[in-house]
Please model this.
Amino acid sequence: MKKNLLTALFAFAFITASAQVQGDNNSLADGSNAPDFTAVDINGNTHSLYADYLDQGKSVVIDFSATWCGPCWNYHQTHAMADFYEAYGPDGSDEAMVFFIEGDIVNTNLENIYGEQGPIAPSQGNWTIGSPYPIIEDTEELNLGAASNYDVDYFPTMYTICANTKTTMKADQKTAAQLRTAINECQTLVGVPNHGQLSIVSTATTTFVDNAIRICADGEMKNIATKLKNFGNNNITSATVVVKENGTVVGTKEYTGNLAQFANAPTVTVEGVALHEGLTYTIEVADINGEVPFNTDLTVAEFEVVEADESNNNILVECYTDSYPAEISWEIKNSAGTVVAYGGNYQGNGGNSGGADANTVKSYGYELEGDMDCYTVVFKDSYGDGWSLGTQEFIGLKITSTQGVVYEYAPGNFGTSLTVKSAFKTTGVLSTPDVATKKFAIYPNPSTGIFNFTTSEAVDVTVIDLTGKVVYTAQGLNDGASINLGNLQKGIYIAHVKGATTQTNEKLVIE
Model:
């Protein structure tokens, strides 16, 4: 989501909410009686505020947000509400409840909650990920955010509701510990002991994406890193983390420390685990403080092992741009960490969506050098909201060879950078590329100044020196065309090449 769009939508939502409250631009005053409601969440479960929770002695946290709202998404990504829910909700001590309510009934729809882009307002991402608590889509029939209910004039608007008094207290963007403190002012939350959560994380050598660890060879040794978070009412001073293959322990790591509630332990890494595609793997917390964890559902993480597809050394890379192409770029690196292919940033429309390269497909043909190798793909976004706003059939990045598709991934909202190790591997053999696989080439390179072009479409070429100065331009070069740079000094230059479906930067060396 981009700043100017956020500002416009934020203003529109504010005006809309103000109209609903007939000029009253204040949220519910602290100490107000909580309006009752009965609503069905996105999973089909019915929730009655009073009957199911407040009357049962359970205090409640409500977050009114909008799927397009950047500050809402940033707060969501802190996982503060999720942490509070795991500690004191049904998976923990069951003393409280948490609701996320998508409160923009004008500009959003159910699909936006899952990260799909609507015709009116783009979504920041998939709001269901990392949200164990119920998610409710507000509607005109429910009208939860309006003046007659929760008086929501901006997003996010958050309330805590005390079970003892049934009254509200503003709680915008509080941490999990602050939510606990706010509710403790009227109801003491007890919690449970030895209660934690284990999650797998990526490292410099091991990528964990879409619940899978990727490898380039069967039996490849990987270090599997985890984060341990404490939801219990006692500190975690010791824990045992194990990796199991088909139910048998194949790796162990002991944690010792003094982990407070809602804190993450430093990375706990089980080292040197041989992985095989097709087997069943879990990583588990066998004990916390010498006891069985309170909720074992949160301390066992399953993962898949995916062996990279094999390609010959001729590849076609297709980049499916999103609505903000000037912000996205990508790289392919070999096992030595050398960038062997790259693309972007593309032509956009300043800070706005659109531009010449928005929602298009950019194609690049490459001959990878060397013997068999394992390759890394890096996705980048300069704004920090990933690749997720495309309106065409969005595939993100697709890499094919004569063997077919060897890697394909639509990364979504990953922040500024996502590195995928073991994305694909090569045989070290060059194929005989056809036109579809070999879109573009410049040869010979190095050269004394004459450079020839192999291209399946007309391209424009701009050559710059290492200071960024443009030293040569040509338009409409077709297959077999040449350029003469013999009048330039010896050295290295960069050629920016662009066609209808081709965009690449090529290093030119004049000897």
Remarks:
- The helical segments are 3-20, 49-53, 70-78, 80-88, 110-113, 176-184.
- The first strand starts at residue 38 and ends at 40.
- The first helix runs from residue 3 to 20.
